[in-house]
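#data-curation
PF: Archiving a pair of folding outputs for the training set. Convention for this channel: one message per protein, sequence first, structure tokens after, nothing in between. First:
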Amino acid sequence: MIIKVVLLVVLAIICGIVSLVAFILFLTNLKEPSKRNTWLIVFSITFVVALTLGIYLVVKAVTKTVQKAVEVGQVIEEKARNFDSDLAKIWIDDRSYLLESSNQNKEVLFLKSLEPDSFKGKVPSGFYTSFGFRDWYRCPLVYPYSMHCVDGMNYGQLSDDRDVTEFTMSYEGRELQLYDITGFTFDKNIMLIKKVKSRDLYGDAVNEVYEFVVFHFADEQEEKFDTEEALFKRAKALDFKGDDKLMAIREYDALF
């Protein structure tokens, strides 16, 4: 291919030189019709050939350059895409090791034991092993519920993940109107929650007022109380079998 291009360039140069010489001879023989016409024909032919070859070579060079630029652009784009993908994987908190048969996590085993009968054998493994992405955190609870946090684990929001099949960087869980959760505990049937009811801001100081909620997993009904004592009194009446104290979200995450 390179040899062909070189030959065409040489031929174009030769034709250009011959065309120039013929044009000069044409001008010097204007008064002699026979010689003038001969050199005009030579000039016309060589000029057309040189011009055609020149245009062809320029177009070929531009096409090749554009093609090369496109190929380089595609390589760069592919590398950037792979880089973004690899970078994203760094931020994914995937704890698949929690399900390793040789050493299954105790908290995961406990959560599995609490699965409603209607969901037995249908829970995606990612529900128990996906713990968020970058500054978004997630902790599994009794299926299909999970706790979500953003920018730290101080406050959480309850989510219903029954329609989620892929738990990776993002998903579409149904967020419930139970947010600003700071403490909780649960058994198979209910979840006891401490959440922020209101905040009063005074400069840098934050005064939080809390409320306490009994959340029923079966029908998502809520019972609200003003004190933790009243919360646990109601839990006892409901034959609650979970812990007798509330746990911070960060403490719960440390169990996995």
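PF: Second:
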Amino acid sequence: MGRYVKNKRNIQVFLMLIFLGLILRLLFVFTIPMYPHAGFLPGYNDEPLHLYYVQHLAAGSGIPVYEPTGIDSIDHIRGEFVQPPLYYKAAVPAYKFGEFLHIGWGLYAVRLMSAIFGIVAGIFAYRLAYLWTNRRRVAQFTLAAMMFAPNAVLFTALVSNDALLICLSVMTLYSISLCREKDSTGNRLVITGAFLAAAVWVKLSAIVLLPLIVFCVSPGTRVKQRLSGYAKVFITFTLIMMPMIIWSIANYGQPYPGGGVAMQAQYQPEAAVGVSGGAIYHPFMAVKMFLRTASMPFLELWGSKLEKFITVIWLVTWSLFLALGTLKSLRQKPYSSVLVTAIVLMTTAFILRSIFLFQVEFRLYAPVFGALAVLTALGYELVNLPLWLHALMWCAPFLVILFV
């Protein structure tokens, strides 16, 4: 009887977190205006670019090819044309259905699709945490992070390929972990390679997860079986990536979409941090923007003393528990080094990108949001904080902008 009651309570907590996470996303779906229109919350300045890509496909124009012709508003919108097409292809039916119901509702339909991706990402992060720890409390803490952390919420409530990237990246981490811990059958290895390839079809930054295929087999596996497992994942990944590679070579002369550094220079280089090595020449500004966008993705809202104070407290608290969770992960069971390795790989790629190209926003860590959530949850477990306080701490930056 006691076990039944405990399981029932676990289910109730799980559903409550999902419900509240969905409500928060719905708030943003229907209240954030399309940039640059004003509202009680600001719009996200890249959203029109992503929506224009969806509209381009919905009009039957096919996958777009970026062709720079100069710096003006139209070229700026076409800048998102360098992105892989999977998210935008998935968004077309939702957009058409929304427009069928009412002109202008296509925006909200695609945002709702992004919100669904966010909920699915949370569910798989929950499963990822439970797989590594076998403790519901850590899984609940992880789910709270995925439901309420600012970047995880905002970018799964807007038209942005980051929404599907977050979802597929968590699914990839879960599948890799499942291979390592329980199921390294041929089917699971193929599924893992497919998840990874799908994530790269959404956004090229997911390629940083590719080295994690070394974790796809158990440590005690024989060398021959280990190499066979690696091969199955890599071959599946390569086969699924091949159409994009061929298309990109045909249109851009390189194995990935985009126009290179020349295209990136169109993103208002005089105002951006990190363009053409700007992160090297302005390191303090770059670090400030990175930390600020970790807790406050709404760039236009930054400025009040209360907001800055909450941001500092939020960052210090999160950093502390992330560090504690990482140490626990490496020193005690479970030895979830795959999660730590994922973050190290992402950090390395992020630094190189900031040096040679542009952008230092925290959202670029989307491929490892699941890993960050699990490791932070391990840290929270050490201090035995109640779940409601854990969720409230994640929401703190949103509470400032919503109610102050």
